[in-house]
Amino acid sequence: MTANLLDFDLDGLAAFCDQLGEKRFRATQLFRWIHQRGESNFDQMTDLAKSLREKLKVHAHVAGLSVLSRHDSADGTIKWLFNVGDGNAVEAVFIPEDDRGTLCISSQAGCAVGCRFCSTGHQGFSRNLSTGEIVAQLWFAEHFLRRHLNTPDRVISNVVMMGMGEPLQNYSALVPALKTMLDDHGYGLSRRRVTVSTSGVVPMMQRLSQDCPVALAVSLHAPNDPLRDNLVPLNRKYPIAELLDACNQYLEFAPRDFITFEYCMLDGVNDTPEHAQQLVKLVRQHATGKGVWCKFNLIPFNPFPASGLLRSPAPQVQAFAKILLDAGIVTTVRKTRGDDIDAACGQLAGDVRDRTRVNERIAQQRTIVLKPVTDLTANNKEA
Ligand code: SAH
Ligand code: SF4
């Protein structure tokens, strides 16, 4: 087995190069070839000594993920579904805006937290992604987009860990992936522009604040414990008061001076004026006295039949937002992007898994090996 170099942050790559008897600056050169230039063929890395290239060919490889499908929205949003093997797929979504390009990526195939309103949660947990599989989503998207948009410049300025999975339940793979995103020899992203979104794995929030403090979004979704226990089962382990204390501790090390609370608006479940008032009380109870310490992002629920839940009507969302705003809490309502390609939250991967299960049943009868629907080159004509 040779090493997949996408699995290493720069320190990891330096340790690997050391084993090959190579100096650290060689690791830096290699890292730049892979992440900044998107190169996977060692023969193309012309400023590396031939002897090193030969060693790399024996001991290493650079393996991305194969693309199962790509969906382009009329608004410029692009969604990819990547094959991670054994009938599992994960998604990444690129969202272009005037002043930034955001890539939303996945950290796990499925998710063990099991939130009621989340189709990934309904699929259950398959496995953690490796560092290489997390980084591969960015590596692929960045270099695909440069070719696609015909630019030598960086396209992705922001990364949000808001695809499938709970990033803080895959901590050991997450941290080197984040370090690669931040590294000046890697993607050079600012800490403020890399966001980990979590359902509230309190001990790991504390570790992240020490190991790799990036921007933090916390999926709150309810203003009291009984309701949050029901919507986000992890709340039974780490209830709201503990979670908000952990948020405040995180802020001491965070690159931004506020936490973003995500709140998925579910009709008649968590969207009444009473819920909004309870939130205001919570925010005030946990204020540190340093002014604004949190912002709310109200997310229109992306419905799927198995949830039995409905999206809150727009006037209900506006009324809810107004109560928070009137109390001085910065609140935005998330614009839905890529609606025509189901670019929100686990939907397409959910479809594929269901189809895969059907295919698996057929395969048991006929021993068919599942193949990607399209491969990278077929999907990416300019490649
Ligand atoms: N596991 C992490 C990150 C992935 S989910 C977390 O829960 O924060 C990213 C965001 O999408 C979370 O805020 C999540 O609550 C939200 N989300 C999940 N399913 C959704 C749905 N069906 N509609 C709208 N938002 C959803
Ligand atoms: Fe997992 Fe996040 Fe979905 Fe909850 S919302 S099931 S934590 S991916």
TrEMBL record:
Its cofactor is [4Fe-4S] cluster. Its main location: cytoplasm. GO terms for biological process: methylation. Residues 97-340 form the Radical SAM core domain. It is an enzyme of class 2 (transferase). The active site is at E91 (proton acceptor), C345 (s-methylcysteine intermediate). [4Fe-4S] cluster binds at C111, C115, C118. It catalyses: adenosine(2503) in 23S rRNA + 2 reduced [2Fe-2S]-[ferredoxin] + 2 S-adenosyl-L-methionine = 2-methyladenosine(2503) in 23S rRNA + 5'-deoxyadenosine + L-methionine + 2 oxidized [2Fe-2S]-[ferredoxin] + S-adenosyl-L-homocysteine; adenosine(37) in tRNA + 2 reduced [2Fe-2S]-[ferredoxin] + 2 S-adenosyl-L-methionine = 2-methyladenosine(37) in tRNA + 5'-deoxyadenosine + L-methionine + 2 oxidized [2Fe-2S]-[ferredoxin] + S-adenosyl-L-homocysteine. Belongs to the radical SAM superfamily. RlmN family. One of its GO terms (molecular function) is methyltransferase activity. InterPro entries: Aldolase_TIM, Methyltransferase_A, RlmN_N, RNA_MTrfase_RlmN, rRNA_lsu_MTrfase_RlmN/Cfr, rSAM, rSAM_sf. This is Dual-specificity RNA methyltransferase RlmN. It is found in: Cytoplasm. S-adenosyl-L-methionine binds at G165, E166, S197, S219, L220, H221, N302. Keywords: 4Fe-4S, Cytoplasm, Disulfide bond, Iron, Iron-sulfur, Metal-binding, Methyltransferase, rRNA processing, S-adenosyl-L-methionine, Transferase, tRNA processing. Reaction proceeds by a ping-pong mechanism involving intermediate methylation of a conserved cysteine residue. Specifically methylates position 2 of adenine 2503 in 23S rRNA and position 2 of adenine 37 in tRNAs. m2A2503 modification seems to play a crucial role in the proofreading step occurring at the peptidyl transferase center and thus would serve to optimize ribosomal fidelity. It comes from Curvibacter microcysteis. PANTHER family: 23S RRNA METHYLTRANSFERASE, RADICAL SAM CORE DOMAIN-CONTAINING PROTEIN. Its EC number is 2.1.1.192. The gene is rlmN. Binds 1 [4Fe-4S] cluster. The cluster is coordinated with 3 cysteines and an exchangeable S-adenosyl-L-methionine. The lineage of its organism: Bacteria, Pseudomonadati, Pseudomonadota, Betaproteobacteria, Burkholderiales. SUPFAM superfamilies: Radical SAM enzymes.
